[in-house]
Amino acid sequence: MKVLGINALFHDPSAALVVDGGTVAAAEEERFSRRKHGHRPVPFAAWELPEQAARWCLASAGLEPTDLDAVTYSYDVRLARPADEMGLHDPWDHLRQTYARQAPEFLATALPGLDPADVTFVPHHVAHAASAALAAPYDALLDAGGVDVLVLDGRGECASHLAGTYERGRLTTHRTQELPHSLGLLYEDLTEHLGFLRSSDEYKVMAMASYGEPRFLTELRRRVRTSPEGGFVTERIDWDAMAKRLAPGEQWSQDHADLAASVQRRLEEVLLELARWLRGRTGGRVLTLAGGVALNCVANTVLAEHSGYDEVWVQPAAGDAGTSLGSALHVAAQAGERLVPMRGADLGRGWTEVEIEERLRTARLRYERPDDIAETVAECLAEDGVVAWFQGRSEFGPRALGHRSLLAHPGRRENLERLNDVKGREQFRPVAPMVLADRAGDIFSRGPVPSPYMLFVHDVAPHWRDRIPAVVHVDGTARIQTVDADQEPLVARMLTAFERRTGLPVVVNTSLNTAGRPMVDDPRDALECFGSAPVDLLAIGPFAVRRPTA
Ligand SMILES: [Fe+2]
Known about the structure:
It is built from 18 helices and 22 strands. By secondary structure, it is α/β, with parallel strands linked by helices.
């Protein structure tokens, strides 16, 4: 069975292709359109079809739209209600609903040959839930007690949360929380109050929280609380009473960091109560998570530590991008397909050596082909160079996981500032380490290991903090990516070669992009990025392009 999944409504338009139960391709539209998030994250720009991503998904599998058995759309307009009836102030919502209603016709226009009657609407939170529970690497469990799932985001059709269990490909929903109560919208409101872009910059708030004390926790506990039957209440919050509203780019004060810390802490407490409620009901062993809130890696670690579940797995594309994949998996499972768990996040575009070399020649760049690109990169990093690393297929979801990455030496504290400068980021934001999986336990504790998708935070062992200062956040934590030599042999070889030279099995890894741009996806993006940023070496496929010395 061939299913094309589409996310086109709230944020991060994307497409995914599931063939015979396996995910063969998934990509966000921003990587093609070069517009971050596919469109500005504002409601009146929501009608962005992932047309390029969808066309690429089909082409990569040699399929035509007429070959598809189903097209899934991760929003079910039949469940929607007028925004004011749900207590939301959202004057553009009726446009969104009109757009969703017409989606089959729009898709048939973008993908000629597609039959509008093949389009199936999947409820938004069911799509999120499936993206976690049906993609998680617990295949055996699908037949034995199932996998629990918690979805938390800003909003779906009329809810902001779903607590359920997937068993044998079927979802049982235990509880949903209706709007206007929403932990995602609460966090988005704070993001905006702190002068950042809502539905986009929430991770900046999480980073800022590490600089503060949860001084306003009592007030937050009054306003945000769980209900006895597994849901929650979020009352209106007078943000100005705690810290004044910031304009974009305005300097923040201790009050703002304390407010961020308070909301972050309250979010962790509420998530923990929701997870414990679910486990109390199901007795489950594995919890899976999706929805934008599940990108909060600090909260994820609290859940992994204290929820009572043996294991917590988070969909790497936990934001709305992942709903294209989830909606397709859900419909495939309903049709009785045996699903193959997700093997990695490298589901986007890849390029052959011939294609890459052709582009290097076209750009008239001087390049070399070393015996082993991993050794060449390790050597450059050991000499404190910054490396743009372009290898294999691009990542699905917001994290660079060793396919489109910017790498640096973790032993030099100033490399944090250097990378934040390259990327045009605020200096309070941390960069993350990638580490050989079998060495992670010596250096990092608290969060789960392995952690291949950078979705949890870990404590850095005290005697390691001075050895890898560039990747240690102000609170002594790091958001690690563990690298398994079987799954990522090239990255593992580079890390091993770096350790041989420096004694450190750790390299700084941040996404390959510059200020405000989506992650690099194709070789042309990589060359543009290399040409416009102070990067010393571009490792693209087996080729090395060096910055000419003046
Ligand atoms: Fe969502």
